[in-house]
Amino acid sequence: VDIKIIEDFKNKYFIKKSDFVIGTFARYELISKSYLELVIKILEADKSRKIIIAGSNDRSFASKMLKKFVNKNQAIILGFSNIHVLGNCCHVFLDTVPYPCGFSAIEIMAKGKPVMSLNSVNMDNYKKSRISELIFKNYIDLQKGLIKLQTSNYHYKLMSQKSIEIAKNFDNEKKLIDS
């Protein structure tokens, strides 16, 4: 991806170097009320966090629930987008709940972006495509994990490398990593 396109996106949406950017790329049917409530807690906990949510279909519910964060440039709600550009703007990926993301999470992991998940009954089928240390029992543990990724360069690099290794086990890994 052309670095100028990434920089233009960051400028357009007021993403600064000091921001910690979380991404979720999925069909809006997966963007549930419980997921959006989780996002609200995450954004309220740290004003330097931003989230980019992008995907196909109706995004009006997400826009409505996150309106105050959109107005403060802390949440970016997009339709169908180039996730290769968006993925290069993010530090981590947040899985949807209660139904985890599918291939978009693998695509982001191929870029070395760790995927954070809340454990649920629906997570069982996705555990092979996630880092076990980044599947959390509850919001408090997820918040601690997010802080650790945000503040420990060593931990972030370790989880980034593990993400790439998991992504390599899936088809088209070379294509994903080079995007």
In short:
With 179 residues, this protein is α/β, with parallel strands linked by helices.
Structural account:
By secondary structure, the chain is an alpha/beta fold. The chain has helices spanning 3-12, 33-45, 60-65, 67-71, 83-87, 103-110, 139-151, 153-168, 173-178; strands at 20-25, 49-54, 75-78, 92-94, 115-118, 135-136. The protein has a six-stranded parallel β-sheet, with helices on both faces. Helix 6 packs across helix 8 (153-168) and helix 7 packs across helix 8 (153-168).
Shape, per Cα inertia axes:
globular
By secondary-structure content and strand pairing, the structural class works out as alpha/beta
List SSEs in N-to-C order.
HEHEHHEHEHEEHHH
> Which percent range fits the helix content?
40-55%
**What's the end-to-end separation, in Å?**
6 Å
DSSP strand content: 5-15%
Q: Tell me the major beta sheet.
A: 6 strands, parallel
Mean pLDDT value = 92
What spatial order of strands do you see in the largest sheet? Answer: 3-2-1-4-5-6
Radius of gyration (CA) equals 15 Å
Number of beta strands: 6
**Low-confidence regions:** none
Helix segment tally: 9
